[in-house]
Amino acid sequence: MDVLSDAIAAMRTGRPHSSRTVRFAPWGFRFPPSKGAGFHVVLQGTAWLLPPDGAAPVRLGPGDVVLLAHGTGHGLADRPDTPLVDALPAPDGSWPTRPDRGSVGAEETLLLCGAYQLSRARAHPLLTELPPYVHLPARVGSHPRLRAAVDLLGAELAEPQPGSDAIVPALLDTLLLYLLRTWWLTERADRSTGWSAALSDPAVAGALRALHDDPARAWTVEELGALGGLSRAAFARRFTALVGRPPLAYLTWWRMTTAGRLLRSDDLPLRAVAERSGYSSEFAFAKAFKREYGMAPGRYRKGAQDLPWRGVPPARTAGAPSASRGAEVAARPGPSGSAGPR
């Protein structure tokens, strides 16, 4: 898969949920912090996003979308000064779909809201660099695919039909990818480093796709650079500046992230997990895995999600200290400069 799809797949832990609700002024809800991510779409009327930490309220008009990728606590109300009450979700975490009772002439707001269950134990740096909230204002002719996903989801929630139980989660996954893609496409022109710049750089983006397509391959920095027509040294400098860590250090981190996902979600034998992660023996894989996660693969498989781990942090900014010594050892190339199976 491509990097963005892989990043989401590595963090997903459960089915997303959503609801389409009508609110009549005055109304205001306080959403506590969560481990997942959430979004709000104003279909009709207006609303105000009340960010945490005293940040200025953000007006949301018809068609506006806001994504809270880090599960940040926030408020949502008809006006910035409306008192807030704690949101009371349904057992599955979604908002109740029954509209409130409004007085005659009360201002009406139609909302489409949802949440995603994500694990942050191995959060991909592609997602950790997102701001506390992403506001995508509605503009005529802009983001047509995102708007189409919103319209389809809204229609399925407004009038459920046979197949809706399968269609809605699929549309929610699609909507999240469109939200993230839209933000990065919007931001890349203003960024010279970070993942927005990395995904728009032909040489780095091509290398990232190759690493994600075949993480078990014995890649060398020279091979990765050649994909984009760069020398080994030039490619290594560019990749490290944009991504925040050297190519083989990123490859090792991604291999271990992939291994953790396989151990959580599949019943593959340990040898198969090791091979898919680029290791030629269970012993070498178990040693590297324990160094990264702080526990043996078998124990990790038996345990729940979101367990502590050690090794390369999910993200760091360019110019920050390099990856931890343990991860550097795991990614250290052999005589050929490869990070292939051990």
Estimated share of beta-strand residues: 5-15%
Ends distance: 24 Å
- Biggest sheet descriptor: 5 strands, antiparallel
Task: Summarize the amount of helix as a percent range.
Answer: 40-55%
Radius of gyration: 22 Å
SSE-based structural type: alpha+beta
The helix tally amounts to 13
Mean pLDDT: 82
- Reading the helices and strands in chain order gives HEEEEEEEEEHEHHHHHHHHHHH
Overview of the structural elements:
There is one protein chain. 41% of the residues lie in helices and 14% in strands. It is built from 13 helices and ten strands. Strand 4 and strand 5 (58-60) form a beta hairpin. The protein is globular and about 70 Å long. Residues 304-338 have low confidence and may be disordered.
Summarize the structure.
41% of the residues lie in helices and 14% in strands. It is α+β, with helices and mostly antiparallel strands. The strands form two sheets. The protein has a five-stranded antiparallel β-sheet with strand order 1-9-3-6-10, covered by helices on one side. It has a five-stranded mixed β-sheet with strand order 5-4-7-2-8, with no helix packed on it.
